[in-house]
Amino acid sequence: MRNSWSLIKKHLINFLQDEVAVTGLKNVTLGLSGGLDSAVVAVLLKEAFGDNMLAVMMPTQYSSKSSLEDANELIEKFSIPAITVDISEYIETFNGINPFADNLRKGNFSARIRMATLYDISAERKSLVIGTSNKSELLLGYELFSEILQVRLIRLEIFTKAIYLILQNI
Fold first, then answer.
1. Cα dist. 53→72, 79, 143, 144, 158 in Å?
2. Separation of alpha carbons 29 and 131, rounded Å
3. What pLDDT score was predicted for residue 31?
4. Whole-angstrom Cα distance, residue 45 to residue 51?
5. By the 8 A CB rule, do 60 and 92 touch?
6. Is the pTM of this model over 0.90?
7. How far apart are CA 147 and CA 153, in angstroms?
8. Which domains does the chain have, with CATH numbers?
9. Strand pairing of 27-31 and 82-84?
10. Other residues' Cβ atoms within 10 Å of the Cβ of residue 81
11. Which of 65, 71, 96, 123 has a 20 to 30 Å separation from 151 between CA atoms?
12. E strand or H helix at 127
């Protein structure tokens, strides 16, 4: 079984390298939340691109301590190049302008600020943003509009259950 996962991992890494090569870019950028999807993609990107990848953590005043700890543990364990961009001020400004916004609106705004931050960093670094939505999320309709409109989004189309299995074998 371990050999099968090695082949799957190799296939995913080759896929990522091939898709990025088509763009002519050498660097990749992703948002690292501390969740499973971004953790799996971060490890695959590190293996595929080495130090030509950048993980960006974007905490807010609402971020859980455990998510940040998980992300930092992953960064340390796999020597992943990473930066932290605190986006709390954007969220506070939105909340000040929209004092009656419900959690859905606040969550949507937070997601869009994170994506705008990633795209800005990728433009500065001449890199490609790598999305971390999984296939289960896509089938349920949970995807950022900006991801849909991106000229070239590399997405590993794997189901949530497969994410757990991959994590056990990385």
1. 16, 11, 23, 22, 21
2. 9
3. 93
4. 9
5. no
6. no
7. 7
8. 2-169 (3.40.50.620)
9. unpaired
10. 16
11. 71
12. strand 127-129
